[in-house]
């Protein structure tokens, strides 16, 4: 549905002026706090952050915190924060727009996880693909259409930085609604892979010490959370040369037993699946194993949830997705002065990216962006995870060549599903969405069970599915 | 791996001369008897049939029967039959080569069916895709390389007509080994679909009576046994216009209960899956339901083999694949004169096709042939099921446009698997073959179970896997 | 600009009923008389012909003639003719629409030929490419948009048969305006090539006598008037096998002298260029030499118009393009009864094509139609000259493979120019049109001369360029 | 002919070790002196330069000069130079290979320029396209096959840096002979365009002073010497925003008169054609006008050589291509100590590029490299001029999107010609080469004159056309 446009020429602007960042979402704090942290430590950029959340109170608290932090002596940044009641106002004339949104987990995410479980479908994350990811995508598409339309109206040249999952579907929606949008999607999963390769360098390369993950060049190609890396270099040293030796060390795969992960963080990652994909397909899986597992049927073909621990990961239970109601929350403690907001090195790249896009130096990283041909063999216009060069002239994808054929086919299936979801979301057609649902690798159910699961999910989340045709034939008995 | 060549120009020949048909295989009689039947009733072509089978005795008996039948008064054809001990001799200077081969079922097909069943993987046919189809493909590739090499050597301009399954892999192997070969693959599954539409015409079109399936034009696109039809016309009447009404009549789907098919033929077909695919994906499945079911996971996600009867089909047990040892066989009875070989209208098109390729009139039908672009969205060079025009100038595919996106993706997955199998077969690489095996929709097993099943199948059939590397890493514990 | 759509399903219709043919243009009589001739001899179709021409008087006279002829005893056809003052009425509910239009030659065609001549640019025909063809295309695009829009409104399922040049641009315009239109373009140039090959068969194939051009199968690929044939068969005999011998007979090329063609018809054709293209590029030029010569620079790089006679053709002078004013015209003589309209075998295929599209049998021919992939290497959606199967289900292109690379590039240049003209015509942008003009092979002028020629042509024909921006920068001094 | 390979993984190497640069050619000194200059000023790389030239004496003199210069006090570099009599020895185990070769101009280049002139075909440079460029390409292909074969044998992982024209054909030959070669082609023509945009920045952007050309980012897309730039940024300022104003200042185009360039350098460039291409096609021509003019017919459609001066350029006469025989040459004066080799800032990037490829930092520049999809709409595998990122992991092209359609078609024609020349060069087929020759835009001759010119060129240079079939039909009378 995407048509490769010639690059347009963005109007010259004095990039040194005071900036405006519009922020959509963030009520749940995670990424908003990171932004406050990073801007407080940023010496060369200055401006305002305009916050908008469907829950205005949360946006207002973020603003209050931001201003409080910025007023502290050790904050070198010069930024003001303001909450707005309308998205239009928050985005008006913005230079950058940051998106980080989520529907209330208790009404949505919990169902995305628990209803499929009743059918024997287990999802470690449930936010990208599988039954849960599909529902999350359907809910997000109308929301991201609105954001794109607001950008077109209020700040057409702004750079939009999306952090929301499902990353591919949200970012793709932005481009489908407003093809001339300047949007990228950021995710930090690949950082883990770079860290692993940094360790490999330290282990295998003579005289390599304290290798920084940022110095490890990886060729990223795939889609968010199902990305492959087939090249990794550190200062000209080919780190793939050591991968077979490392695989040998880690054999046999899987290397854990059910129960081994009890007590571990839900986010634990042991690269078991990443290495298994390398072993069988020749490319290294470059996302956490809990994500990778959701894109093919064979890691989650389990009868009991504990079995997935054999691959060194855990299922995140739905309870962990609902805010803990006990005790004063972190935010309240900050605002009350009970806790001090500690500065840290976040490792996030948003500020570096903004700087590069303002013309202050070149920056090479991986991000989510429409395919212009950089990943040969995947459709043009599909949002892919890809290396790119960022400069004052914008984002330029770096050619990454082809994926091995069977791996490409595994990715292609999800690209097709995501494109189908976009079309279903724009037309409100749940019969079409069900085509993608049937083709989800995790949906290993019989034809009728698959239908029932889909219908159950739609029924449970129908309040969040405005604009869809709830009389679709698939929903009829 | 296939490169679209410019058409070459076949040498002019006096087509009216006596013809030679080389026949590879046929020992198991089915198709050989059909050929004898059809040639005996063919008035305008004449020549010899040179039979070759790895079991020479069977070829000799076919020759004996052929000559006996041709000597009968009511046989208008003028053909002689001779069995050869070498393929070279049988194919030397042939005008046509017919292939119809099979490994001894007791050593192979039985395992293809029964071993996966131990893992809960049920296959109604097991000859095209799924674990069984994969093994059959691996076994066939070296055999069809040899046939292609013999054609190149002995009769480079001959037309090769393949009837062997897995149809796509066998035909694709012929082209991979000898890219300039003139080869087509024939299968009669689509005839059923034409018959269904002929019935629809009789039911819904005013004054339509005794509609002949041959007068129903269907636009065929897909791969053998997983073909879609998205257009059907009879004398300018669009038969798709009646398909929704017919679907309504047949609702709900599935319409049977476990046990309903007991006592039915293993080949029973009720178009339940064909209509369900139409209902969900908008194109009509144009092969028997027992084939269609093997290409997606959701019809065979069953715990008990009887459940598949809900879709109006049965599983063919492996016992039905081994020759019945009781009593004198049909062939013996014919040769002894106890039974008379009765002429029938076979419905097969081979003789019509030969006639057209000899320059005697144009003929439009569906067949299996490399994709030159006739099915947009599938890879060039992949063997697809497609309409084509046959004339004295050869085979010309008819453009069929694109498949709906999700259906295309379902087909693409198998095309990728088949291309991977070809590469595995040509290099002897079973690790590569296992990539395709993992991506088979019917392999809904866990990662290790999938490996075990593959290893078990290879172990059971290793005598038929000469030329493969049996030390592949996937086969090691 | 064209998007490959899935085939739609035309509504079933009782094709045996009385038909309506809408006829746009035809005032200049040529093709209208052929239609009257063919319908008068057509036993199995019946109905009315609704005539519309911008010059209503001419349409009325055609109607009068049609009815007069149909009333004659020897006319077996049963058709009535009526002239309409509005295109809407003529096309309302039509089953077929025939287009055959031309602007008044004295105001347009004459300039197309004579103004370039002043710049040393000679065009034998000037109706397809070159400066003249470019202008003709610019004039035609708005007219064919109107026809397409009327079809969409009045007879959306009708089959539109276009005879007007520039064939590619007119047919392409129909699809650009109304992508779901059912339109084909017919041209008889390739018939000559079939006749040549019929003669080759008679000469070189044993026992071949009275070979009918219709029995010669040629693989047509290219664009109208610049089509290549790379295969020709007659009853299975490969006629390309004799082409080198025939080339040898005709060597050296060119084989004529200036002056040799004096007194010959302007339409004389000696296959000199067709064979020269075969000699140098390996494919046979399948249009009259006077057309082929206009698509590359090297046959018309002449200082004196007589030089082109060396290739066995003549330039048609502009005077031959204006109606002869002397004496009563043919039409008047028919209507007055002074002359009798004699029936002939026209050789045109329109009636056969209508019959096939009504479901009465299959018909294979060559025509102009959007590329769905049948000509690999040319852009999808471009209108190409191609073989096709016509049945009650519609038009299905036959795959023709690739052109040799340098020949393909020569065609590609014109395809690009034609697509550019379409865009220029739809936006009214003459600066864009000038890009195509500069890239016309016959425009071998300096940069400023090229501009002057374009400006002169636009100035001379501005009355026929409504809807174009005459303030384009290229038109300013 | 090129097949997009998956990237291979180069063996890790200790990049800090002493390097070996193999140098092929350089006898004519220009680029060899630049290399000596640049290495003498390079502090961080060290090693040896192994020189090979078909004229060993010239290589030996370069070695002598190199060692002499490196011995001077102000030379901070640490390199030794040695001349070899065999290419094998010079390239054995090299880390980098630099190619800069030329046939003796008096026997070749002089004919390339002067023989076409006799036919009225004027070429300002004659080294890339046109009749002269075609001949140069035909001569170079066997030579670059030999280089590629030697690299494959002696230093398969080396990076090959080509400076020789025709750049595209030479670099493409390297990849055709040895598809896994690591090769790039460097040309400094685009630097001029960056300088022009640097001046635009200084003129139009507030507070921009002393803008460095290296800080101007341009999106380069096309083929060497016919490259377009459609984006230019300086520190986030879009410089294309000022291009229309600058065009207005420079109007009318052309702005010179015949004779205006007398006395100017042959290399004078006034961006007249670069701006005219921008004016008409919307993209800026990014090579010197003398090169750009050779790729389309309309700037050189002149009757008198002086006319080209209207576009602010001169034709380089063949006499300027032959070494001046008068007086002692520069080299002799250096070696004799009569002249001192002065260090300068060369502006060349080879040393920066080597450094980046050794893993010392990232470097973004433009170079000539196979198309992996970075320029959408041009064929995969064709050597294109493209932006790329250079790191220790190799060369990664940067996506540049599509060219405007008519410009793309102009480029495509040359890409096709270059691919045809490669095929002709590898098969020795001059009939095939003549297909490309006929399609050269500067060959605006009649069909027979074109043949005669081609035959004359081949006859004059036959001593340099070993390996071609001189009995090609095009060469017969």
UniProtKB/TrEMBL annotation, chains A, B, C, D:
Cofactor (UniProt): NAD(+); Mn(2+)
The entry's keywords: Carbohydrate metabolism, Glycosidase, Hydrolase, Manganese, Metal-binding, NAD
SUPFAM superfamilies on file: LDH C-terminal domain-like (SSF56327), NAD(P)-binding Rossmann-fold domains (SSF51735)
Pfam families documented for this protein: Glyco_hydro_4 (PF02056), Glyco_hydro_4C (PF11975)
InterPro entries per UniProt: GH4_Enzyme_sf, Glyco_hydro_4, Glyco_hydro_4_C, Lactate_DH/Glyco_Ohase_4_C, NAD(P)-bd_dom_sf
GO biological-process terms attached to the record: carbohydrate metabolic process
Domain Glycosyl hydrolase family 4 C-terminal: 220-443
GO molecular function: hydrolase activity, hydrolyzing O-glycosyl compounds; metal ion binding; oxidoreductase activity, acting on the CH-OH group of donors, NAD or NADP as acceptor
Keyword NAD tagged: yes
Coiled-coil blocks: none
Family: Belongs to the glycosyl hydrolase 4 family.
UniProt-recorded name of the protein: Glycoside hydrolase family 4
Organism of derivation: Halorarum halophilum
């Amino acid at each position: 549905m995407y048509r490769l446009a010639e690059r347009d020429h963005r109007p010259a602007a004095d990039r040194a002026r005071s900036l405006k960042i519009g922020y959509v979402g963030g009520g749940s704090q995670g990424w908003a706090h990171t932004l406050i942290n990073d801007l407080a430590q940023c010496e060369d950029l200055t401006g305002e952050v305009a916050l908008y959340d469907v829950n205005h109170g949360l946006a207002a608290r973020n603003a209050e915190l931001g201003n409080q932090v910025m007023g502290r002596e050790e904050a070198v940044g010069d930024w003001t924060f303001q909450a707005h009641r309308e998205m239009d106002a928050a985005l008006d004339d913005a230079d950058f727009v940051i998106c980080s949104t989520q529907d209330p987990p208790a009404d949505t995410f919990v169902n995305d996880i628990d209803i499929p479980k009743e059918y024997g479908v287990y999802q470690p994350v449930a936010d990208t693909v599988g039954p849960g990811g599909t529902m999350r995508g359907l809910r997000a598409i109308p929301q991201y259409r609105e954001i794109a339309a607001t950008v077109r109206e209020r700040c057409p040249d702004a750079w939009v930085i999306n952090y929301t999952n499902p990353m591919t579907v949200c970012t793709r929606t932005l481009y489908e609604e407003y093809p001339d949008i300047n949007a990228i999607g950021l995710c930090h999963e690949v950082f883990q892979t770079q860290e692993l390769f940094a360790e490999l360098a330290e282990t295998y390369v003579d005289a390599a010490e304290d290798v920084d993950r940022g110095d490890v060049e990886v060729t990223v190609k795939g889609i968010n959370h199902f990305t492959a890396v087939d090249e990794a270099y550190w200062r000209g040293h080919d780190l793939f040369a050591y991968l077979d030796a490392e695989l040998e060390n880690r054999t046999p795969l899987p290397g854990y037993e059910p129960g081994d992960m009890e007590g571990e963080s839900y986010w634990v990652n042991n690269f078991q699946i990443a290495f298994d994909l390398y072993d069988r397909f020749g490319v290294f899986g470059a996302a956490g194993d809990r994500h990778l597992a959701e894109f093919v049927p064979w890691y989650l073909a389990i009868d009991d949830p504990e079995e997935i621990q054999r691959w060194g990961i855990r299922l995140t239970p739905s309870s962990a997705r609902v805010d803990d109601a006990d005790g004063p929350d972190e935010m309240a403690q900050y605002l009350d002065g009970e806790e001090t907001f500690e500065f840290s090195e976040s490792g996030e790249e948003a500020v570096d990216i903004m700087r590069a896009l303002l013309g202050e130096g070149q920056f090479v990283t991986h991000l989510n962006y429409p395919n212009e041909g950089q990943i040969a063999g995947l459709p043009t216009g599909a949002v892919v995870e890809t290396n790119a060069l960022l400069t004052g002239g914008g984002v330029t994808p770096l050619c990454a060549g082809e994926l091995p054929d069977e791996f490409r086919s595994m990715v292609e299936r999800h690209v097709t599903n995501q494109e189908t979801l976009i079309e279903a979301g724009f037309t409100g057609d749940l019969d079409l969405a069900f085509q993608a649902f049937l083709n989800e690798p995790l949906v290993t159910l019989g034809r009728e069970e698959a239908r029932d699961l889909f219908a159950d999910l739609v029924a449970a989340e129908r309040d969040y599915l405005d604009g869809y045709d709830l009389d679709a034939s698939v929903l009829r008995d």
